[in-house]
Amino acid sequence: MTSPKITPLYEDVTFHGPLSEERAARLIRSLMPLDDAHVLDLGCGWAEFLLRTLEAAPTATGTGVDRNATDIARAQANADARGLSGRVSLQVADVAEWQAARPADVVIVNGASHVWGGDPLQHTVNALTEARKLLAPRGRLLFGECFWEREPTEAQLAAMPVPRDQLGSLADLVDLAHSHGYRMLAAEQASLDEWDVFENGHGLAWERWLRDNPDSEHAAEIRETADSARNRRLRGWRGTMGLAYLTLLAP
After folding, report:
1. Exposed site from 18, 90, 99, 118, fewest CB < 10 Å?
2. Can you give the residue range of the structural domain that contains 159?
3. Domain Methyltransferase: where (predicted)?
4. Which pTM was predicted?
5. Residue 111 belongs to a domain
6. Are residues 178 and 57 in the same domain?
7. How many CB atoms lie within 10 A of CB 153?
């Protein structure tokens, strides 16, 4: 059975992750100066953060890569509408197979360390390693990655598809970045409110579809998907798994 098309998430949230307007602006400032810089966003979704970065840095250029064609089409429409299409290239591609045309002054991997594939226990290491290869000397990595805000219980681990050893503490995450040659310039984390706004956007998309398609042959499948997502969130990681935003320098 082919799954139906679901209302895009960007109709209900601004960014492709738990990120407020205020935090986004602050993270962009942490990447400055960006005069004549090239910014690369991997797993960019609909590239809202990348587009805002370019708006804040009028001489910068950018590349966004994501395998979701619907998201990239939305990103391109937004770039066109905001007069940014001449400074940004938005590409549908598998990041693990994609080749960069030039070194980047800034690489963004925001909640997307999985884009290189492989063993989930290696996702963070893969992202830190591969991003470093793409950075110009003295380049910066904006790294959004999960960590255990508090130790998960066995019941929570059973409710969510995240192995205990996949994540460590925030301090462990920063130490791992340093062990791969980075230096931390700034660190902060998504708030519970930011998580809730983002996850509510996911849930609303599913529930809207169920409301509008009550007699669809796919209704049971979509309801199961929505219920599973809610269970993972409320019985699993909510309040336990955090998301760090690290601004890292690659000397």
Report:
1. 99
2. 21-191+240-249
3. 36-153
4. 0.94
5. yes
6. yes
7. 11
